[in-house]
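User: Can you predict the 3D structure for this chain?
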Amino acid sequence: MSVLLLVFAGLLLLAVLLSSLANRTILSTAALFLVAGFLLGDGALGVVSLAPDDEIVATLAELALFAVLFTDGMRVGWKDLRSAWRLPGRALGWGLPLTLVVTALGAHYLVGLGWMESLLIGAILAPTDPVFAAALVGNEKVPPRLRQLLNVESGVNDGLALPFVMLFLAVAAGSESLHLGELGLELGLGIVIGVAVPWVAIKLERTRWFSASTAYEPLNALAIGLLVLALGKATHGNLFLAAFCAGITVATFGERQRESFEHFGELIAELFKLAALLVFGALISLPLLGSVGWRGWLFAILALVLARPLAIWISFLGSGLNVREQAAVAWFGPKGFASVVYGLIVLASGIAAAQEVFQLVAVTIVVSILLHSSTDIVVARWFDDEQEVPAWYGVARRLRERVRKERGAS
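Assistant: Here is the predicted structure, written as structure tokens:
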């Protein structure tokens, strides 16, 4: 534990020092933690020694996903969803399930997994991560509707994919472990806790008996999140669904709490994200990457270049997006943090195909992080010109004009 803490602290300092460079180049801090975990793990140097069944793996995965879903929910209150639902609704209502199905078809027919395990992989790999499209989302020259689409979609799809992951995992565990009534109660209890706790807390803070000081205001949402986590643990409600619902409730009914917690909460979520990526990288080894065979690698590539683009193309027929915008949305379906944690949950579940599912998920995430984190800057530059043409086009046009003038002068 002390070695892991020392490694994480050193990498965090390095990430901070390189963060400005990362914002301008293909360098990615997320990829830094993933690669460092791989190099320092048992599969390479053996500095960080972790096993899938270590308590720190399960605990960190749980806390990290809770924090991320809570902050994701805060980005998309009901007002935001109502005002910007047309395009994100297509991506979530059609794109998410279509991506799940196409990915599952690939896992079944190409790799040979059973239908339930294939659907489980599809659900794990369906969510997208905005971290690896940061240059695109943060570029003001990119059309606002495109940035809003990617932001809302990535903020909501983690929570929407969660029930499918839980359901397919329960079914894959076998008939002896399948209790749909208990699963439904767990999910329902998570929703109730996630809505009731923040609603009551915000209403109490608005009464004449209570008032949060300026110094303590950022802790308001943190206290709500911790209470939701504690109640979920105590009642066995679904923590992740509770976190997502709690974030949405705070964003809907507590605009002030949302604004005061936003920066603080994103920093906490980022810390957990990077720690989980470090642990995930440490669990990956060269034998694991080689064990999937060529079919597994082909599946990983097709899951990125076929499943998402095909689903998005179908979902956005007649949407009004131009070709460049559709291409950007189709490509930026990076598999990131939520998929990492869902993969760790499956690995710790003990189902018969847990190792095989984790291996395929791990390979796909590794390829996705490397590809998407190194192409966000490139795609963002497509929108550098005010007329929304690629940056290289302007250079080529000026060269042609110069050659034409020189010929005319001669």
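The chain has 19 helices and no strands. Confidence is low (pLDDT under 50) at residues 386-393.
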